[in-house]
């Protein structure tokens, strides 16, 4: 069974059909990319999967369970983590604290209780700290743990965002333009990080405009144009698909 199965998904904004009858699935352990021109509906698709938007039609199954229309925090607790086009780290907090917040979503104590330092949550707090540190180590940025997150270089902030998403222990990680705003060295580094995340057994679905990154790391690619899926295939086939070249790659 596919880890994620999107069926006939649609979203209408007034008279605009932003996503139209989109179906695809993501097998466990795969890196799958969604590409397409500006306004093709990629971010809307992500928002439908993660519960930020309610679909007008269709369904989303995670590991066979219908998660269509659930709230974002519920979907996060079912095992889908995401990062955003614009990095959203908390200012005034260290890298470690930012990553610990991701972990709190999965903890029993809850974020408020832990902020109040209730005694019964201190042991849990220690475990969360340890788990967050392990995520930083996995991504090779443990030495940044005590620095203020928003003072870091852009590429490092992106890695912190990935660590925070990993701290949620997701089965599926959705990355919205992970290379946006990064230089070629930082983009190559993010590519390595995404590949190493897959090595941890986490399935990845990403939206990305950087075609060298997409072609390098993806197992399969879905192409959207005007809200519709126009192609789905392995990278080599997508690169030589005439319709894809016409609407997107040939730009
Ligand atoms: N909340 C909204 N209300 C109305 N229209 C919207 C809303 N969100 C997106 N749209 C429209 O839906 C279409 C798809 O937008 P979306 O942001 O999903 O495209 P995208 O493929 O992610 O584009 P980009 O590559 O520029 O990020 C666009 O025409 C956009 O203007």
UniProtKB/TrEMBL annotation:
GO terms for biological process: D-alanine transmembrane transport; L-alanine transport; L-isoleucine import across plasma membrane; L-valine import across plasma membrane. The keyword ATP-binding applies. InterPro entries: AAA+_ATPase, ABC_AA/LPS_Transport, ABC_transporter-like_ATP-bd, ABC_transporter-like_CS, BCA_ABC_TP_C, P-loop_NTPase. GO terms for molecular function: ATP binding; ATP hydrolysis activity; L-isoleucine transmembrane transporter activity; L-phenylalanine transmembrane transporter activity; L-valine transmembrane transporter activity. Coiled coil: none annotated. The keyword ATP-binding applies. One of its GO terms (cellular component) is plasma membrane. PROSITE patterns: ABC_TRANSPORTER_1, ABC_TRANSPORTER_2. Residues 4-251 form the ABC transporter domain. SMART domains: AAA. Keywords: ATP-binding, Nucleotide-binding, Transport. This is Amino acid/amide ABC transporter ATP-binding protein 1, HAAT family. It comes from Desulfofustis glycolicus DSM 9705.
């Amino acid at each position: 069974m596919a880890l994620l199965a999107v069926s006939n998904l649609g979203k209408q904004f007034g008279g605009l059909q932003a996503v139209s009858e989109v179906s695809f699935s993501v097998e466990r352990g795969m890196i799958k990319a969604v590409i397409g021109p500006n306004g093709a509906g990629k971010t809307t698709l992500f928002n439908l999967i993660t519960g930020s938007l309610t679909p007008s039609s269709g369904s989303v199954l995670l590991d066979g369970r219908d998660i269509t229309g659930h709230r974002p925090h519920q979907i996060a607790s079912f095992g889908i983590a995401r990062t955003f086009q614009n990095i959203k780290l908390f200012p005034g907090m260290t890298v470690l604290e930012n990553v610990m917040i991701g972990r709190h979503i999965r903890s029993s104590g809850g974020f408020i209780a832990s902020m109040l330092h209730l005694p019964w949550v201190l042991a849990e707090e220690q475990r969360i700290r340890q788990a967050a540190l392990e995520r930083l180590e996995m991504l090779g940025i443990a030495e940044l743990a005590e620095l203020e997150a928003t003072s870091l270089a852009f590429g490092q902030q992106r890695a912190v965002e990935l660590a925070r998403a990993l701290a949620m222990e997701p089965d599926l990680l959705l990355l919205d333009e992970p290379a946006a705003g990064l230089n070629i060295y930082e983009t190559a580094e993010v590519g390595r990080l995404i590949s190493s995340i897959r090595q941890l057994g986490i399935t990845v679905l990403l939206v990305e405009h950087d075609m060298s990154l997409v072609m390098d790391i993806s197992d399969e690619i879905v192409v959207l144009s005007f809200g519709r899926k126009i192609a789905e295939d392995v990278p080599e086939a997508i690169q030589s698909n005439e319709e894809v070249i016409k609407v997107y790659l040939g730009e």
